[in-house]
Amino acid sequence: MTDLCADDLTAIYPKPSPRVIAKARPAVDAHAKKFIEMSPFCVLATSGADGSVDASPRGGGTGFVHVAGPNQLLMPDRSGNNRIDSFRNVVEGSGFVHLLFFVPGIDETLRVGGRGTLSADPDLLASMVEFGKPPRAVLNVAVSEVYFHCGKALMRSKLWSPDVKVQRSVMPSISQVIHDQTSLGEPEGQDVVEARYKTQL
């Protein structure tokens, strides 16, 4: 297998149309704001000081990421595994972040890029109580680029179609998987894992 170079890419892929280039906007407009306010889920991508890249799922109630202005998003951080890879990248790495927003039932996605900083300001945390508790920190994104992705990827995957939904029972619980991989902790069934999740949202 031969790796492609930049010239190979130019030969394989035609230039994007002017419209595709122009759709990248410098701020959150009315359409992007509406999409973010409908979104309960996004993927956060960050880059580390060593050039590594992290992508992490983030979710909450509909509109859990707050549009504070055309060039500012505020994303509360909820309970997780405490690895904080993304946040270490924000404070120790380039600070550049990208968010990919999903809205269930809509095949298009929204990509937002900018530079992130973190805050644990008590008043800010208190303003973002969800699931009965404040976040531990808030990611503040200074937005510099916003654009919608076409729906082809989600259409190909049939992501929202009940026809491709699998039964949870086809995979062991995450507790069992990690036990098999590490021999650490005690394996738990899916019902136990889900019950614990509900107390930690």
Give a short summary of the structure:
With about 200 residues, the chain is of the alpha+beta class. It is built from 8 helices and 7 strands. It has a 7-stranded antiparallel beta sheet, with helices on one face.
What does this structure look like?
The chain has 201 residues and is an alpha+beta fold. The protein contains eight helices and seven strands, in the order αααββββαββαβααα. The termini are far apart. The model has no long low-confidence stretch (mean pLDDT 95). This is Pyridoxamine 5'-phosphate oxidase N-terminal domain-containing protein.
Regarding quaternary structure, how should these chains be classified? single chain
CATH class of the largest domain: Mainly Beta
Strand arrangement within the widest β-sheet reads 2-1-5-6-7-4-3
Q: Can you count the helices?
A: 8
* Proportion in helices: 25-40%
* Total number of strands: 7
Q: Tell me what portion of residues adopts beta-strand conformation.
A: 25-35%
CATH architecture of the largest domain: Roll
Shape: globular
How many separate domains make up the residues? 2
Major sheet details: 7 strands, antiparallel
Assigned CATH superfamily of the largest domain: Electron Transport, Fmn-binding Protein, Chain A
Mean pLDDT: 95
Task: Indicate the radius of gyration in whole angstroms.
Answer: 19 Å
Cα distance, first to last residue? 45 Å
Helix-strand topology string: HHHEEEEHEEHEHHH
Structural class: alpha+beta
Organism: Bradyrhizobium neotropicale
Protein name: Pyridoxamine 5'-phosphate oxidase N-terminal domain-containing protein
InterPro entries: Pyridox_Oxase_FMN-dep (IPR024029), Pyridox_Oxase_N (IPR011576), Split_barrel_FMN-bd (IPR012349)
Domain Pyridoxamine 5'-phosphate oxidase N-terminal: 29-150
